[in-house]
Every structure is written in structure tokens, then in C-alpha cells.
Structures
1.
Amino acid sequence: MDHGDEGAGRAAQSRRKDARRNKEALLDAAAAVFVTSGVDAPVRDIAARAGVGLGTIYRHFPTRADLIIAVYRHQVDACAEAGPALLETSATPYDALGRWIDRFVDFLVTKHGLAAVLQSDSAGFDALHAYFLDRLVPVCARLLEAAAAAGEIRADVDAYALMRGVGNLCVGADSDPRYDARRLVELLVAGLRRPH
């Protein structure tokens, strides 16, 4: 392989990395716009926030459904990747668990509108729901195991049941200003502590 081929390979790799970064920036922008304006927000608002042209968005995501699904998956991935990072950087595993649950609540509360849109395509929704569980339940389980191994929480907490409980506490959080889902989730997480 001559140096010309090597240089071309590096350039192609750099272009792929740039494209991936641009796509992630676009998904972050779309998620932010969806949170403030709902999933029916004009695509031009997303393009403006991401600093790209409309053509760039349509090249990556030909339909609004494609964009919504990509945003949902991107947010699930970010939440999943946060778990191990929080275990590394938090003072204790229990602290990591609490911070991750807080992030999970952010995801649940801010994805309003996504689920409703996806209900119209039940096969697509089922696939996304399976993706959500496959990615997030093992992360939650790892955080619970670490906190239990450190003697901070009881050892009999099931990750799926905890996530389901948190999800149920978040239902309706945006429709009643007197209802503070985050406060109730904090009480739930505090209840995991082992009695002294």
C-alpha cells in the first residue's frame, strides 16, 4: 500500500467521523426542538438550531418518522452510555444510580409526543420499545448491582420493575403543575437505601 492510499484512507475515515458528529449534532438539535415545540415542529427550526440546510436533514432523514425514530434511539443510546460513565465519576455507586435515574426521568419527561407519534406504526413502536428495554435495563441492573455490592441499597431490587415504577411516576408530569414527578422519583430512590 503506498502513502497515497494511506492518506486517502485517513481522509475517508475523517469524513466519516465528521459525518457522524454532524448527524449527532442534528439529532441533539431535533431533540431540543421537540422538547420545546413538540414533534410537529417545522423542520426548518431544527435545521436552524443545528446550523445546517434543510437538504442535509432530508438527506439523512427522508421522512419526519425517520427523524423521530432516530432522535428516540439517539436519546436511548445517550442514556445507556451515561450509566458506566456515572459509575466512574460519582462518589459512590448509589450516587451514580441516583444521577442516572435523574437522567432517565429527563428522557421520559422530554420524549413526550414521540410515543404518541410512534403509536400509529405499532410494528415500529414495538421495535423501539424493545430497543429501549434492551439498552437500558442492563445499565440500570449494573448500577443496582454496584450499589448493592457496596452495601448502599437492598439487594432485591429488579431493574425492570424499578424503571417501570419510575415511568409510571412520570406519567402526566407535564399536564398538572402541582404534580412533581421528579420529587416522587427521588423518594422512590431514597427508599432503596438499606435500613441501618
2.
Amino acid sequence: MPYLLRRLGALVIVLVVSSFVVFSGMYLAPGSPEQFLVQGRTVSPEVLAAIRQQYGLDDPFLVRYWNWIMGAVQGDFGRSLVTQQDVGALVASRVPTTLYLVLYSALLIAILGVGLGVLAATRSGVFEKLIVLGSNLGFAVPTFFAALILMAIFGVGLGWFPVSGSGQGFADRIWHLTLPALALSFPSIAVVARITRTSVREEQGSEHVIMAVARGLPKRFVLWRHTIRNSMLPVVTILGTHVAGLLAAAFVIEYAFTLDGIGSLLVNSVQKKDFAVVQAIALIMVLAFGLINLLVDLLYAVIDPRVRLAKGAQS
């Protein structure tokens, strides 16, 4: 419990610092909100002053930041400068698509990455060479190029999957998001498979595994209870990092497949200097990244009890 409280406290500090950096960065960027609002028209100083007062732009910087962060804590991110919609409602309408895409991709990474890595480590020969070749290919192929290849083959060529839109309902969403999820997860699957293969191979040569085999324990029991479980710490670390990174990489796939997620919304908002929307999405991404890292730390104790004991001793 003390360890969990410390990690939650650290997450709160990261969120506060990140929110300040995001808020500051948007106002340090070239241009200003009032310049966008007037759309290049020449207006009188009185009109400009009224615009600044309406959006709180004439308040001191720290006051604007405090009002924004207090509103964000209560779920109020302000109003969009472009659409005049409530930012919270605007972002919430885009979250389901990105959430489906990221969770689908994370599931593919966990199942295919870890599964292929374990198979490559436990089965030598042509099968292992094919997995190694595939992982090398995954390193080399950019996400956007993978999306184009998948659309050309399975979308346009074979017609198995749609190449645009996010669908309606659970089954239709899964069908529409299959190609985007594969394109988004393809490089990460290659990395996780390579790390898993190496980790399992190293664990197979460890002393406790050799002793377990020498005692006559069933090979399947030794494989799952000793080899795979003890090799998962580095795999969980790289898996958590890549899953967290899916949020940042999703905007490329959302643009390629014309999905209505928060990634495409973020790109459009940056281009139009819609400050409130950019700040809200950036804060959500930082929060998601922090929560995933926290989950990875907690999984360490589940996978290896020695980690839990070490944390208890430090506390």
C-alpha cells in the first residue's frame, strides 16, 4: 500500500508538471488565440479587448493556468475556439474510436508478440527463422507504410475489410478497426516477439530451470511455471512502453483510415491553434501514459513475488 500511494503521488506530480508545460507551450507557440478568432480581419482595439476578456486572455498567465487546471479537475476544459463546442463533450465523442483502436492493438501485441516470441524460443528450425525474419521486417516497415500495404491487399484487393470509417456497434467496429489495429501494432509485435524470444532463451539456461528439469518435473510445467513466468519481467516492461506509445502513434493511423478519433482531432486542432482542445487531449494522453506505467509496476509484483518483497523491504 505505501508503494502504491507513492506511485500515485508521483503520478499526480507528473500530471501537474506536464499540464503546466502543455499550457505554457501552446501560448509560447507563434500566433495567439485572438488572432485566430478575428481570422486575419482588421478590428478595433476595443473589439480585440472584448475578445480577450471573453476568453480570459487578459488575465495574468498563472491565473489563466490555475483557472484551466481547476476546471480540468472538474471535467471542464473550456470551449473550442473553432466550433464553440464544449471541449469535454467534443473529446468524449472521439474517445470511443481511439479507445477501441488502442485496446485492439494492445491485445494483438500481447497475444501475437508474446505468443510468437515464446514459440520462436521453444521451437528451433524454419519456424524460428520465419519469426525472426518477420520481426526484422516489422522493425523496418513504418506504420503508415504498413497501413497502405494492408489497405491495398486486404481492403482494395481482396475486399475483406473496409478501409475507412470506424463502424457502429461492437462487431462492426471490430471489423472496421482490424486493418488499422494491425497497422498500428505491427512494429510493436515485432519488438515484443524479439524481446520475448531472447528473454525465454536466457531463462531456459538459468540454474533453477536446469535443476527443475534434472528433478524430473514435466517439461510443460517447467516451461510455464519457471521459464515463461520468470522471463516476463522485461517483456512486461517493453509491452507497457509500446502500449502507452500507441496513443501517440494512433493519429497516423486515424488519418490514414479517416477515423474519427482523438488523434485526428489533435492534428486538426494544432493546425487551427484550437488551444483548449490541444491542451485537453495532451493532458488525457499524459494521464493514460502514467496509468499504464503504474499498471506495469503493479504487474511486476504479480509476475515475480521477489519484486513485491523488495518493495516491502524498501518501504
